[in-house]
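This follows on from our talk about sequence and fold. Can you supply me with one protein entry, sequence and fold together? Could you add the entry underneath, on a fresh line?
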Amino acid sequence: MNQESLEHLRHSLAHLLAAAVMELYPDTKRTIGPAIEDGFYYDFAFDKPISEEDLPKIEEKMRELLPTFSSFDREEVSAKQARTTFKGNKYKLELIDEFSKDGQTLTLYRSGSYVDLCRGGHADSLSHIDPQSFKLTKLAGAYWRGNEHNDQLTRIYGLAFPTREELEKHLVMLEQAKKRDHRKLGAELGLFAFSPLVGSGLPLFTPKGTTIRRLLDEFVWSLMKPYGYERVSIPHLAKSDLYKTSGHWDKFADDIFHVSSKKSDDAFVLKPMNCPHHTQIFASEPRSYRDLPLRFSEVTAVYRDENTGQLAGLTRVRSITQDDAHIFCAIESVKDEARGIYEIITTFYKVFGMPLSVRLSVNDPATPEKYLGGTQAWEKAVGTLKELLDEMHVAYELGVGEAAFYGPKIDFMATDAIGRIWQLATIQLDFNQPERFELEYTAQDGTKKRPVMIHRAISGSLERFMAVLIEHYAGAFPFWLAPVQIRLSTVSSDFVPFAKKVMADLSQAGVRVDLDDSDEKVGKKIRASAMMKIPWTIVIGAKEVEGGDFKVNVFGQEEDLVIAQADLLTQAKQPSQFPVS
């Protein structure tokens, strides 16, 4: 089943859900019910509250009605007819008024005895699908049309797949995901915290969490440096004029944090993006073709005023640390620069064992108001990226409407250990910002030309990537990335001095090591180390003090690793390095 057919199936099941609810709770008011990733939902205004304990009953009613959904019959109606059909439902009436005012044709879809206002996109029939291929999963609160000033509704979520087997596989994955939840593991492993005094969506990273962030930053930099990138640094706020010129002001108006000043008449904002600042570094001095390409790299925070209800651990935050870089180059260099970024991205994700798929995200010609720039600039940008992928023989899917508002992009989807797909890395082409900021360089023939701007992210947001990694590894990071690589556990206080010497030698060699010199029994110490998912645990007792081999308890392995004392530093340092040079 292709993606469009699957979306139609899921949307059709949203109708079936609404039909079941209306039979069981006839005083309920229906609103909208779209298909979403992995399933569907429908928002209702219930006369009396329901709970998740009611979901099996609703699900059973859906299966009872399933044979009656043998078709989705379309009927065009006038606004007056539609209002009669949905009299008493203020939510449907609001939609009817809005759609009829815009001159849209109003359509009803009928399945069995159920009728709904809908613009279409359904399966031909539901009567022959496997009754066990869908499942209702949870309730949630949702504001009508996403506006917190509107009525709060009850949203019922469901999963849906073409077959029962695919649904069961997905449910197993969800169980795995619960165990791997980065919010739970992050707290247990002491990687990050949130504080109500600091604010929602503003994570605080502990020394351990900061170690992982630093290592990821250094790893990306080790891959980028050979390609000629240079580090830059910019402030965390700017005049609003910067973002008005760039075009972000209109596109991100609701997401920008405003900063007030009693000492300046200028309007300032916390930066929602880094790229406009980087254009001003380019513009700070005359540029020649000899200077290009210029590759500015920076790991820095941006700030987005997200709705509180949309915040989720590290995956959706208000303070976003971007692994960001922007390249300014001549049009003739675009393919070479993008090819270099592609090589960095594929090398990076190979290390984490996360297979990549590629999507070419382009503009939707049907909605030109969503994008900056003219048709010619977009055609040139899209054509350039298509040619690059074709020349490199890279298979890709086309994502119409998935482009950034300023240009098309190559998006990389990474598959984690339990089969989930995450959109993380990206290469974005931008002809618009150089034009809007009037950036220029002197070409070889003495004329002035516009550079092309390439946006790129390898890990993307460090917060989100950390969440992905925590869940990918279930908190058991590889040796090179673990915040604590080795724990020394003493049998008794008699062996602490020797353990401290070993610890000092390892630390001097750059190995991250800690010491458990508590009075607990050895077995409990080993279990505590395993709970923290520390890669190596070495017990220090009489045998070790006398020069015997170290017995290393390796997390996740049944057999211990035996290492001669003289070889410990060498063996510990080797996996401590970045996996690629």
